[in-house]
Amino acid sequence: MLPGAVVGWDLTAALALGDSLGVPPLATAELLPVIEAVMVAQLNEQMERPDG
Asked: Which of 11, 16, 38, 43 could form a disulfide with 6 if both were Cys (CB 3.0 to 4.6 A apart)?
């Protein structure tokens, strides 16, 4: 946990969400880390902007 920064998602919750949406667990496990990395980078970049 870092004040003012996103370090990651609750992957247990994300896996449960994928399951509830009918996404195969293998697909979720393969795709979530890539999606998480991009989203975390984008959120942190946005928070650093003065208008963020």
From this structure: 43
Question: Please, which pLDDT band fits residue 2 given cuts at 50, 70 and 90?
Answer: low
State the maximum Cα–Cα separation within the chain, in Å, rounded to a whole number: 40
Among residues 32, 40, 30, the alpha carbon closest in space to that of 8 is found at: 40
Q: What is the pLDDT of residues 30-47, one digit of tens each?
A: 999 999 999 999 989 988
**In contact, 18 and 36? CB cutoff 8 Å:** no
CA 1 to chain centre: 14
Residues with Cβ < 8 Å from 31, sequence gap 6 or more? none
